[in-house]
From TrEMBL:
Taxonomic lineage of the native organism: Bacteria, Bacillati, Actinomycetota, Actinomycetes, Streptosporangiales
Residues of the NAD-dependent epimerase/dehydratase domain: 4-111, 152-260
Organism: Nonomuraea maritima
InterPro entries according to UniProt: Epimerase_deHydtase, Lipid_A_modif_metabolic_enz, NAD(P)-bd_dom_sf
The protein's name: dTDP-L-rhamnose 4-epimerase
Length: 329
């Protein structure tokens, strides 16, 4: 039995993490802004942390960020909040951290160019997007490329406020581990979906947006040409990954893992699967685009399996069937 403090315990992912930890017989204390408990409150942490074995840090401001007015909140909640937490862990001899990180730290996925090998393209140009040329081209020769899976050692390329703060959290966790000899494990979640996923907001992921559209009798609007690839991983699998991470990593280091289903799908396939399961309007492919979006990001999930013994169990068809009609938060 391990004594675990879960931050963000009332959130979509955090609430599933609490359930999974308890199902595995661990003793859980929760902290969540929804009940007025702020991870930036050092006095609160001083009360909660003594006797804690592991902190599982899920509390964060999520989503892409609507505009630069969001920057102070992202920095305060995600970066400053993690700094306060790590300082309090050091003060109270808590030696293990599991951090909710994200695949957004990578930016665009990895590709193989027939002539130039493995490449990581930068942001797509406004001109290409406007003429519906959505596939990234080789940054060296402009040729088409084959999609490859991204491993944890790939260079990071955060492209928005949220991604930047998730990477900052990883760096702070690595600092803390080095300075204190603590063990830090960062889980880079891919596109998490499942029961209690928040309804459609400007900060929601695409699965929630599509589901909310169907619920309201509207057609899901598939951007670009629908060929964007993501790895949709079920929230119960993500919760199990957190349980597995309680015993992973090594003292003095930050270990990093992709947490993914290993079964990538396109955004068009996501829309079709949800529409088929829920009924309602057929998806429409609109050709709209968002400049901040990456085209494909497909994870190599093998390190988590080899080192944490974690493997996603919920398949796409089964997970989407449940999600299509599950009650939201
Ligand atoms: C999402 C999250 C990100 C999180 C990551 C991993 C958001 C906004 N993004 O990134 O914070 O870290 O998953 O869990 O929460 N799309 C449509 N129609 C729509 C909306 C989106 O076709 O109505 C498309 C987008 O163009 C994009 C894809 O769906 O190609 C995924 O979008 P989204 O879920 O917003 O963002 P991710 O970049 O995957």
């Amino acid at each position: 039995m391990t004594r675990v403090l879960v931050t963000g315990s009332a959130g979509f992912i955090g609430s599933h993490v609490v359930e999974a930890l308890e199902a595995h017989g661990h003793e859980v204390t929760g902290l969540d802004l929804r009940s007025g408990a702020d991870v930036r409150d050092a006095a609160l942490l001083a009360r909660l942390l003594p006797g804690t074995d592991v902190v599982v840090h899920q509390a964060a401001k999520v989503g892409l960020g609507v505009d630069v007015a969001d920057l102070p909140d992202y920095a305060s909640i995600n970066v400053y909040g993690t700094a306060v937490l790590l300082a309090a862990m050091a003060a109270h001899d808590v030696e293990r951290l599991v951090l909710a990180s994200s695949m957004v730290v990578y930016g665009e996925g990895a590709y193989d160019c027939a002539r130039h090998g493995r490449v990581r393209p930068g942001p797509r140009s406004a001109e290409d997007m406007a003429r519906g040329s959505f596939e990234p081209r080789c940054p060296r020769c402009g040729d088409e490329m084959a999609l490859a899976t991204i491993g944890e050692d790939a260079p990071t390329d955060p492209r928005n406020a949220y991604a930047t703060t998730k990477l900052a959290q990883e760096h702070l966790a690595a600092n803390w581990a080095r300075e204190t000899g603590g063990t830090a494990v960062a889980l880079r979640y891919h596109n998490v979906y499942g029961p209690r996923m928040p309804r459609d907001t400007p900060y929601s992921g695409v699965a929630a947006i599509f589901r909310s559209a169907l619920e309201a009798g509207r057609a899901p609007r598939v951007f670009e040409d629908g060929g964007q690839t993501r790895d949709f991983v079920h929230v119960r699998d993500v919760a199990e990954a957190n349980v597995a991470a309680l015993t992973g990593g090594a003292p003095g280091t930050l270990a990093v893992y992709n947490i993914a289903s290993g079964e990538p799908h396109t955004v068009g396939e996501l829309a079709a699967a949800l529409a088929a399961q829920r009924g309602g309007q057929e998806p429409v492919t609109t050709g709209e685009y968002r400049m901040g979006d990456v085209r494909h990001i497909v994870a190599a999930p093998h390190r988590a399996e080899a080192e944490l013994g974690f493997r996603a169990r919920v398949g796409f068809a089964e997970g989407m069937k449940e999600f299509a009609t599950a009650p939201p938060a």
